[in-house]
Design goal:
The protein has a single domain (4-328), classed as Aldolase class I (TIM Barrel). It has 12 helices and 12 strands. The protein has helices spanning 45-57, 76-83, 85-89, 104-113, 128-135, 140-152, 172-181, 201-204, 208-215, 282-287, 292-302, 326-329; strands spanning 13-17, 62-66, 94-99, 118-122, 156-163, 185-190, 221-224, 233-237, 242-247, 260-263, 268-270, 278-280. The protein has a 12-stranded mixed sheet. Helix 4 runs parallel beside helix 6 (140-152). It is globular and about 60 Å long. The structure holds S-adenosylmethionine (SAM). Residues 22, 26, 28-29, 66-67, 69, 98-100, 122, 160, 162, 189, 191-192, 194, 326-327, 330-331 line the site of S-adenosylmethionine (SAM).
Length: 331
C-alpha cells in the first residue's frame, strides 16, 4: 500500500491546507487585496477527513493542518477531533498544525485534548509595531497569549520565522534567546518566490548561509542529526542550550529527502511545493462512495512527483517561480 515515488522516496507526510483564508496579510506571503476561493469550491470537513483517511491508509504517518490560517476555518476542531481517531488507532504517528497563533488561546486546550502534541507557530518579530507592519492585520499580544495558552495546555511549540533582510535579521539573535529561554525551538526559513506580492522579493531575501555566518560570530552552533520529519536542519546552540533550525529552499535544495505531498482545501494535490503540476482528487472523491477511484488518482499523482524544485530570486526574474501563493498549499 505504501506510496513510493519514481525516485524511491516513501511518501509518509501529508500537509493539508484546510482554507486559503487568513486573518493576517503578511507582506511576503500575500497581496493585501487577495481574492479567496468561493466557499462553494471548498471540500467539506467530511470530505477532507475522507481524503486524509485514504492517505493514512496508504501510508501517511504524519499529518499537518495548515492554510491560510487553519484555525479560522469554521468548525475546524470537528476535523481535528475526527482525525484524532487515527492517533488512537496507531495508524497515524503525529497530527499537528502550523498556525499564526492568533486563535490559539481559544483552541490550545482542545487541540491538546485531541492528541496534538506539537505545533508550529509562525512569528517573524517580537516587536509589536514591526509585527503589525509585516502582518498588516495582526496583533502581537494575541499571538503571545496564544503561545502562553499552548504551553499551558502542554503543547510543545516551535517558532518559525521567515528571515527577511533589513526587517528581522538583526533581531533574530534576540528572538532565539527568547524562544530557547521558553523551551521552544526556533526555525528560520528563507523566503520563497511564490505568488505575486506588492513588494520586491529580491529586497527581502536573506540567504541563511549569511545569517548562519553572522550568528556564528556570537554563538557556538553545532550541527546535530535531530529531525522532526520536515526539511529543517538543526544546530545546537551552546550559549542558550536550545535548538535552531534552518529551512533553506533557496541556498540548499532539500528535495532529495522529500517525503511530503500537499493537499489544498479544494482537493488539489501538489506533489511539490515549488512546481505547478497538480492532481485533482475532488472529482474522483465525489464520483464514488468507495475510495478506489481516489486511491488510484493518488497513485497516479505520486508517480509524477518531480525530483525537486528550482526557486530563483534575482533581479532578472521579477515573476515568482510559482504563481500560487504559499497560502494555497500552506507552509
Ligand atoms: N497561517 C499559518 C501560519 O502563519 O503559519 C499557516 C500558513 S502560512 C502560509 C505557513 C508559513 O509559510 C508561515 O510560517 C509563513 O511565514 C510562511 N510563508 C508564507 N509565504 C512564504 C514565502 N513566500 N516564503 C517563505 N515562507 C513563507
Amino acid at each position: 500500500m505504501n506510496m513510493i515515488d519514481p525516485f524511491g522516496r516513501t511518501i509518509s507526510y501529508l500537509r493539508v491546507s484546510v482554507t486559503d483564508r487568513c486573518d493576517f496579510r503578511c507582506t511576503y506571503c500575500m497581496a493585501e487585496d487577495m481574492a479567496f476561493l468561493p466557499k462553494k469550491d471548498l471540500l467539506s470537513l467530511e470530505e477532507l477527513d475522507r481524503l486524509c483517511t485514504v492517505f493514512i491508509e496508504k501510508g501517511v504517518r504524519k499529518l499537518r493542518l495548515t492554510g491560510g490560517e487553519p484555525l479560522v476555518r469554521k468548525n475546524i476542531m470537528h476535523l481535528v477531533r475526527q482525525l484524532s481517531r487515527h492517533l488512537d488507532s496507531g495508524a497515524l504517528e503525529e497530527l499537528t498544525l502550523t498556525t499564526n497563533g492568533s486563535q490559539l488561546s481559544r483552541f490550545a486546550a482542545e487541540l491538546a485534548d485531541c492528541g496534538v502534541k506539537r505545533i508550529n507557530v509562525s512569528l517573524d518579530t517580537l516587536d509589536a509595531d514591526k509585527f503589525h507592519k509585516i502582518t498588516r492585520w495582526g496583533h502581537l499580544d494575541k499571538v503571545m497569549q496564544g503561545i502562553d495558552a499552548a504551553q499551558a495546555a502542554g503543547l510543545k511549540v516551535k517558532l518559525n520565522a521567515v528571515a527577511l533582510r533589513d526587517f528581522n535579521d538583526v533581531e533574530l539573535p534576540e528572538m532565539m534567546r527568547w524562544a530557547h529561554g521558553r523551551g521552544m525551538d526556533l526555525t528560520v526559513i528563507e523566503t520563497m518566490p511564490m505568488g505575486e506580492i506588492e513588494g520586491d522579493r529580491t529586497d527581502q531575501y536573506l540567504p541563511l548561509s549569511l545569517l548562519r555566518a553572522s550568528l556564528e560570530r556570537q554563538f557556538t552552533l553545532t550541527d546535530i542529526p535531530f529531525k522532526t520529519g520536515g526539511p529543517a536542519r538543526y544546530v545546537h546552540v551552546a550559549e542558550t542550550g536550545g535548538r535552531l533550525g534552518f529551512i533553506t529552499p533557496m541556498t540548499h535544495n532539500f528535495c532529495e529527502s522529500c517525503n511530503r505531498v500537499r493537499l489544498t482545501c479544494t482537493g488539489t494535490l501538489y506533489m511539490c511545493l515549488g512546481q505547478e503540476d497538480a492532481a485533482d482528487l475532488r472529482a474522483p472523491l465525489r464520483a464514488s462512495e468507495g475510495n478506489e477511484l481516489v486511491a488510484a488518482a493518488i497513485d497516479e499523482a505520486i508517480g509524477r512527483k518531480p525530483k525537486g524544485h528550482d526557486f530563483i530570486i534575482d533581479r532578472r526574474t521579477s515573476r515568482p517561480s510559482v504563481s500560487r501563493h504559499m497560502s494555497v498549499t500552506g507552509g
